[in-house]
Amino acid sequence: MLCGARLKRNGRTSAGRTRWRCTGCGSSSLWQRADVARVADLDRFLSWLMGRATQRDLRGGTSRTFHRRHAWCWNIAPTIAVTGEIYDEIQLDGTYLSDGWCLVVAIDGATGQVIAWQWCDTEKTAAWCALLERIPPPRVVVVDGGSGLASALKACWPNTRIQRCLVHVQRGVRTYVTTRPRTDAGRSLRVLSLALTRIRTIEEAGRWQVNLNAWHQAYGPLINTRTYLTQVDIRPAWARPHATWWWTHDRLRKAYQLLARLTRQGVLFTYLNPDLDDLTISSTTNRIEGGTNHPIKDLLRRHRGMTSDHQRRAVEWWCYLHSPDPRPPRNLIKPEHWAPAPSPQPRDTEPKDVRLYDTNATPEEGLWSRKGWAGRST
Q1: Domain membership flag for residue 109
Q2: Are 319 and 114 in contact (CB under 8 A)?
Q3: What is the distance between the alpha carbons of residues 69 and 202, in angstroms, rounded to a whole number?
Q4: What is the pLDDT of residues 352-366, one digit of tens each?
């Protein structure tokens, strides 16, 4: 190495590194390429983060050594590039993390790959708009009816057809009438909601709407019944404050109105629309629920105990690695990731009182120079 001659392999050290020997002068040396080492560190870090192996299994040492060696990997923030591709179907959903953050995600309905994500505190219109504005409007969007999403779709994708998740509609009806309704009206409405996921043709959808209208004709007077405050002793807890009357069968009425409202909006059977015969549209958000939200929750469960920042970074890595054509992680490494610049220290601009550095005792400290007999030394 010193004389410029050719090097050849000369065994390994006790740590497993390759030892090189100069054929001219016989000097021995060790080579270490920082770029290769960083790539290996990142690959090992992602294997631990996305897999089930422990830090000790991957590194061969202690967990503290793994943490110290790969701490710089948390500085890499992966992002999905905006391609401008127009998708036939996009599914949208939000999931909440244990630290209070909410992740709203958009996936390709055909492949299940993550298109974009957005962090927020709750599912609200501003968060959904920040996500939708980065994606061209698709032909169909499948949603679960989360808060703020309807107004965001109206503002950002006004011409996109909407398909409501039928499983979430069934859950909404179940919330109002329970799984074991006590009345005939509740039981028949529960049967109607369960039949939603078994509809396969336009004719079956038409018969379902006829049955819903028949239910309203039979039980319409029941759900329109009112109870007045003068008829009872106390006002129920679910009634509005200072209300003088309320719907007697309020929960049954809300269950019916949910089905009737979605039927009027035309979002229950978009997957059966003849104009979309060239597409296979999903009627539920099961792909994003089971293919995205569940693996993310499972990832955080395996690595429970991480800080809030590390939880979000782990979720970002999962979404990035499950996006269409992600760049190799090694291409995301930059020098500032493993050698970040030190943060500037705040400068104290306030004038300093030099008397604070005096060594004399002060009355403010409860000490002072004594005079008289008490100050004499014996």
Answers
A1: yes
A2: yes
A3: 60
A4: 555 555 566 666 666
